Amino acid sequence: MQVGGTSLSSPIIASVYALAGNSVTSGSYPYSHTSGLNDVTTGSNGSCGGTYLCTSVPGYDGPTGLGTPHGTTGF
Predict the structure, then answer these.
(1) pTM of this structure
(2) Cα 53 from Cα 47, distance rounded (Å)
(3) What confidence tens digit (pLDDT) does each residue in 30-49 have?
(4) Which of 25, 38, 45, 50 could bridge 63 with an S-S bond, Cβ 3.0-4.6 Å?
(5) d(C-alpha 27, C-alpha 60), whole Å
């Protein structure tokens, strides 16, 4: 079974923030602590071509944002 989108990502990110003990008053913390995230640099989101919203690249991109949690240090 394949699962994805906000149905999966929202609960994961909320639980990582809770484990880190931080309240989310500003979403900027992960941007300044990217070493706590695994940057997804390859892959695509479906068949919408090579646009920003469909293809992952190093750094921030549409399908993966800043990346996946690597523990709680990014939060």
Answers:
(1) 0.70
(2) 11
(3) 888 899 999 999 887 767 76
(4) 45
(5) 14
